[in-house]
Amino acid sequence: MAALPVYRWRLAPDGYATRRQLRAAGLRPGGQDVAAQLERPRRRRGPLVAYLYRIDRAKPVRPMTPARRAALAKANAARRTCPECRRDAGYVIPPSLGMCSTCAFPDDNAPEGASWNSSPHTAR
User: Which residue, 35, 48, 61, is CA-closest to 8?
Assistant: First the structure.
């Protein structure tokens, strides 16, 4: 296995891009391996590393189909549904709680200053 070329911050040659740069251009890596590495030095820690892909080998982003859009909407709805009360909380339920804030902190046991606990189940 050959070593990757390493470039310093802002000194990568044309023709390479990070995943975010590819996505902004409407592209994706498309299964290609990492082509190069970009390093940004830091004072007290190891360098920040970004992986670069070749733009000429990138493929266009797959279009959003109605079926993919429906599956994404269903998955997001499941993340908002409280497993205790089975209601849509209106926000993504935090994994640390595992339930909506109303179920996790009933009004009589609400922590001091919990203004975020004020009826998330009201119609918006």
Answer: 48
